[in-house]
Design goal:
- By secondary structure, the protein is mainly α.
- The chain has a domain at 1-62: lambda repressor-like DNA-binding domains (434 Repressor (Amino-terminal Domain)), CATH 1.10.260.40.
- Helices cover 58% and strands 9% of the residues.
- It has a two-stranded antiparallel sheet.
- Helix 2 packs across helix 3.
- The chain is rod-shaped and about 80 Å long.
- The termini are far apart.
Amino acid sequence: MKKENLSSLRKRKGYSQQQISDLLNMDVSNYQRRESGEKSISMDEWQKLAEILEVPLAEIYEAEEKQVIIFQDHAQNHHGIGNTYSIPEYLLEHQLKYISRLEEENAKLREMLNRNTDNNK
C-alpha cells in the first residue's frame, strides 16, 4: 500500500527521495520501496521520518494493515524518542461491539435487580 501521506508531505517539505534515504542511511531504492508500499517501514523508521519532516508521527504514519493509534506518549525511551501504541482497526471495532454487548447485559441485570428489590419490599 503506497504511503500517500509520507510521499505528499515529503514533496511539500521539498525533500527528494534521495535526500530522505541519505538521512535514513539507506539506498534510495530501499527508500522508494518503502514509500511505494513494496517494503514495510519499521516503527523506528517512522519515528525518524517524523523527526526529519518535523511533524507528529500520527500525521504521516500509515500502517501496513489499517491501524488506529490509541496512545502516543511524549516521554523519551532509551532511544530518545517517545512510544506510539497502535492496534489494528478490526480489533478496535471488535472490542467496541463487545463493550456494547456487555453494556446491554449490564442494563438487563440492573433491571432484574431493581425488580427483585421492589418485589422484596
